[in-house]
């Protein structure tokens, strides 16, 4: 084994053999191999159990909202209305309106959520998403002068026949005589009244009166039959609205005479059989 062993004394030879045996039995390094102490990412060495144990990364608050610890790793989660950002840790708002939010009409995005709103004339249903039509006509009887008609999202005012809508809510009489939208002949006069018109004969004069204009008859002073008659008669038509509070003045007339000391008398000649009208 040793080429020089035969040259050594017996005691020295024994000592050299002991040193060789001790050197072969002792390790070169007293430290443990690295494979015993090194752990993979997400683990740390537990000296008590002599094993690698999982690191709870969530205790370091790496996530903006919620953290879920996993074996050897962790995962961040966001609250509803948010999604993970590019770094997989922070949370950014989700625009639900661009992602098909269930709003029936209008959608408004807000931080972490969204709001549904309705167009004018609608109100939000209790479910928070759908819209119901508002019946404006049921809230007030003064929206329209004549009749209110509810429509989807709005209302409209209607007028009776012979009237036209003024602005959006009032009714105005159509003057068929002025607009020539009538069926009166050339020998008739068109008389307009609220909601319609009437054709009357133009010549109202009866002997001994002679016609001076469309509505004025004159009794000539040279005619003996005119001595006890009014000198002139003027025919006028007026429209009187119904359901008026009474008593009420319908019209006022004032007589003038070219004769000094003349006496003027007024009376209702016809059309007052029930005594609805009187002179004062």
TrEMBL record:
It is found in: Secreted, Extracellular space, Extracellular matrix. Its main location: secreted. Residues 54-92, 133-172 form the EGF-like domain. SUPFAM superfamilies: Growth factor receptor domain (SSF57184). Keywords: Calcium, Disulfide bond, EGF-like domain, Extracellular matrix, Glycoprotein, Repeat, Secreted, Signal. Belongs to the fibulin family. This is Epidermal growth factor-containing fibulin-like extracellular matrix protein 2. It comes from Jaculus jaculus.
């Amino acid at each position: 084994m040793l080429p020089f062993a035969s040259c050594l004394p017996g005691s020295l030879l024994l000592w050299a053999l002991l040193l060789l045996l001790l050197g072969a039995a002792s390790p070169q390094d007293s430290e443990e191999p690295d494979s015993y102490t090194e752990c993979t990412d997400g683990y740390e060495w537990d000296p008590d159990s002599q094993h690698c144990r999982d690191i709870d990364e969530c205790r370091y608050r790496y996530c903006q909202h919620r953290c879920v610890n996993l074996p050897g790793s962790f995962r961040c989660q966001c609250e509803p209305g948010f999604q993970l950002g590019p770094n997989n840790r922070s949370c950014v708002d989700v625009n639900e309106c661009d992602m098909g939010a269930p709003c029936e009409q209008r959608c408004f995005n807000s931080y972490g959520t969204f709001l549904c709103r309705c167009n004018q004339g609608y109100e939000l249903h209790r479910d928070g998403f759908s819209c119901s039509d508002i019946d404006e006509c049921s809230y007030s009887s003064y929206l329209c002068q004549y009749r209110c008609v509810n429509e989807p999202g709005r209302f409209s005012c209607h007028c009776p026949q012979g009237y036209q809508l003024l602005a959006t809510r009032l009714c105005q009489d159509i003057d068929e005589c002025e607009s020539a939208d009538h069926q009166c002949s050339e020998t008739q006069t068109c008389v307009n009244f609220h909601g319609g018109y009437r054709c009357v004969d133009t010549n109202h004069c009866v002997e001994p009166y002679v016609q001076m204009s469309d509505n004025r008859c004159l009794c000539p002073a040279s005619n003996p039959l005119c001595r006890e008659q009014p000198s002139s008669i003027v025919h006028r038509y007026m429209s009187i609205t119904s359901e008026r509070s009474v008593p009420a003045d319908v019209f006022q007339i004032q007589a003038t005479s070219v004769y000094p000391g003349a006496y003027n008398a007024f009376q209702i000649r016809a059309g007052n059989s029930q005594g609805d009208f009187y002179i004062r």
